[in-house]
Amino acid sequence: MLAKGAESGERKGALYTDIYGIRPDFLSELTPVKGTLDREKFASGSYALVFTSYIKIGDDEKNTDDDFYEPGDILTLSCGENSKDYEVMAVCDIPYGLSSQRYSFIYGHVMIPESEYFSLTDNRNAMSVMLRANADRYDEADAQIRELVEQDGRLRMKNKHDYEAEYADYMNMVKLVGGTLSGILALIGILNFVNAVTTGILSRKRELAMMNAFGMTGSQTEKMLMWEGIHYAALTAAGSFVIGTVISLTVVKSIAADMFFFSYRFTLLPLVICIPILILLSAVIPYFAYRSICRESVVDRLREN
Questions:
Q1: Does residue 173 come out as left (phi exceeding 0), alpha (psi in the -120 to 50 range) or beta?
Q2: Using CB atoms within 10 A as the burial measure, which of 58, 251, 274, 304 is most buried?
């Protein structure tokens, strides 16, 4: 069970802090950044787990490089008229899903034993309760908890399926927006390629006619233009591989690292799918572009300036 209070932060040097009262068995859900977790020492009521951070103005990113507290430091928690000193056992953030899910520019999380929390405040209401059920008893537990929630009327419940559904909706939105933007960019790229190849062939109409006049057959000209297009596609694929890999390993990876619900996985599958399509278009478009100018005779094309 988690109960949450707040330090006033009105005194000079004080930090507004969310105070959580937790049970010792909750320590298994935490990963210390500094220090170690000791369940027996924590249960004694003389220790606290602390996490402090601040957001750089303009960056909107949490900065944990300069912690306000280190393991072994003494901090004073105040809630109303009550206050008590605690030794920092470890620097450790609370899981986002079990936190108050709110942040300010400078903030802190302090976790103390549940009994210590009740000695600081009269607030006996639990902010959240985390329950785990075996797979074979999940449906039964879910039904019982929902019944209790509906009877009370003030409680809200979310199970793992609710979170999975929310995440699925979010991913569908990302796929829809990303897919639409990718499709628009792909269409623009194809149209630009068609325009560039067609314009290039039309500007070389007289040159190609001279090649035909000197004995180069239409089939040979078509193959030459198609291979030129394939070479362009190969250069584009190589450039996309290098630039895309650099962007993925730097920008995309850093963005995914800041989102706890994302895990970064490098893949070349989209590029592998796009390359055959790009090569096909690079071969087909010059073929039809050359066919369009072949409607005129070689003599007519040679007469053009």
A1: alpha
A2: 274
Residue finishing a domain among 120, 151, 168? 120
pTM to 2 decimals? 0.54
Containing 238, the helix (H) or strand (E) segment is helix 218-247
Q: Where are the beta strands (DSSP E) in the chain?
A: 3-6, 17-22, 34-35, 47-55, 62-63, 74-79, 82-91, 106-113
Domain that holds residue 277: 204-303
Quickly state the pLDDT bin for 173 (edges 50, 70, 90).
very high
Does residue 129 sit within a domain?
no
Q: Is residue 69 part of a domain?
A: yes
- The residue from 120, 147, 177 where one domain ends is 120
d(Cα 54, Cα 17) in Å, to the nearest integer? 12
The number of beta carbons lying within 10 Å of the beta carbon of residue 120 is 20
| Number of compact structural domains in the chain | 2
